[in-house]
From TrEMBL:
The keyword RNA-binding does not apply. Keywords: Membrane, Transmembrane, Transmembrane helix. It comes from the Bacteria. Residues 182-348 form the DUF58 domain. It comes from Christiangramia fulva. Pfam families: DUF58. The keyword Membrane applies. The chain crosses the membrane at residues 12-35. InterPro entries: DUF58 (IPR002881). This is DUF58 domain-containing protein. The lineage of its organism: Bacteria, Pseudomonadati, Bacteroidota, Flavobacteriia, Flavobacteriales.
Amino acid sequence: MLFLFSFWFEILYSISWVLIVVLGLIFLTDLVMLYRTGGVTASRILPEKFSNSDENRVEIIITNLYDFPLNSEVIDEIPVQFQKRDFLKQLYLPVSKRVVFDYYLKPLNRGEYTFGNLNIFVFTKIRLVKRRFVFSKDQMVKVYPSFIQMKKLDFLALDRKISLQGLKKIRRIGHTMEFEQIKEYVRGDDVRTINWKATAKKKDLMVNQFQDERVQPIYSVIDAGRVMKMPFAGLSLLDYSINSSLAFSNVALKKKDRVGLISFSRKIDSFLKANARLPQLNRIMESLYNINTGFYDSDFGMLYAQLKKHVTQRSLVMLYTNFEHISALQRQLPFLKAIAKNHLLVVIFFENTEVKKLTLSDPKNLSESARQTLAEQFTHDKIFMAREFQKHGIQAVLTSPQELSVSAINKYLEIKARGLL
């Protein structure tokens, strides 16, 4: 601008050249200060694994090695799955001091996530030159089913507050092969349990007392068919089921039960035999990590055949699936009834929360009123399905995706408290 106005005011021409020289000297000073000596070091600290659908902490550590303070801009290349391209953090870096900050990421899919470069741009107060430093290239972290939710629900399950109202845990006298003690006979005891050797020694009738088996086989069965592809709040029904089965399996292991896992669609995708050892939880997590859904109809007849062949002992089967139409339920009901003859079957299926919201809306015209009527019909069908299961002796849990884990654990605790298995 000064050069422009110097066309009319000649004195500005000399002043413009002086300012150009001064600006050049300042630029060279800034350049030498940043590139002569010093530097910065930075690192990105990632957890060993990310928890799906939870906030995961990423920590950035930056150290200023210059002998003067700096301003900086941090641009972290976040994995492509997040589709986030506006990450920018501005920091002040004191002399020879370490600056730490963190941010959080919430993945919505399992799999491998790769971070790109950690770019640090530093500049002095002059702000004419920026120098870029690149660190932590191509760091990879795996996203596993929600182990954060698992730990939270583990704590809740051990708390008495989670017990359902009206339920009281009692020790039931059973007839399984888990021996408890020998006691004196009282009226009402089963005469078949009289211990004749102990009776001969005591000269009074003595009976064997047994208790229900504590270590019971429990299987989480996950339907990986197309019906589980439906998304709610960014997560598919399959991922909700995976997160829930991990939390549920952890609680069952804490209760000393044997836990297994089955996932299926057109065929059995994964099968883990029920086991009560602690490493079983890691095996379940690794199996859940690899479960994917396709666009196929699941074969419940094949599931029944595989359960009959490989799971010979009566077990608690927690089946995660979904039915949107009564006709779909009617097609699979014969297989579910067959499974329920050999095992205690609990079918866990989902409310359509978006449809439920529509039933609570206030229609403003005839078209909206018609949609609300259809939504009410779908909601009623879900309730009818739950009653249909109960009519055929099948336990049912109808829940929203967000409340799935708590609902499944509560159902398990209810079954344990009532001694149904």
